[in-house]
TrEMBL record:
InterPro entries: Cu_amine_oxidase-like_N, Mao_N_sf. This is Copper amine oxidase N-terminal domain-containing protein. Transmembrane segments: none annotated. Residues 22-89 form the Copper amine oxidase-like N-terminal domain.
Length: 97
């Protein structure tokens, strides 16, 4: 099962994306998420992402489904120093100590 986070331009679906600055570029199909000192850049259908300019391989790529951009939840969370646990359909997001 793909572990992705749904969001749109006006409202995040999970607390994790609250207070993010989200920039979409339709020409090169990139999404840039900025929160505090962390900048995450993803490109639709690309297994390479960048965290503060450092390239990182993804287990799954970002995609657009029914006009909604989907990004890998675990990757975004861990890039923000969060612990992401999936348990029988529940998602637990906590700060790492």
């Amino acid at each position: 099962m793909s572990q992705t986070l749904l969001f749109n331009e006006t409202k995040s679906q999970l607390e994790l994306l609250r207070n993010f600055i989200v920039q979409k570029n339709g020409e090169d199909q990139t999404v840039t998420l900025t929160k505090g000192d962390t900048q995450i850049k993803l490109q639709i259908h690309n297994y390479m992402a960048y965290v503060n300019g450092v390239p990182t391989w993804l287990d799954t790529w970002s995609m657009i489904k029914d006009g909604v951009t989907m990004v890998p939840l675990r990757f975004v969370g861990e890039s923000l120093n969060k612990d992401i646990q999936f348990d029988e359909g529940l998602i637990h997001i906590t700060n790492k100590n």
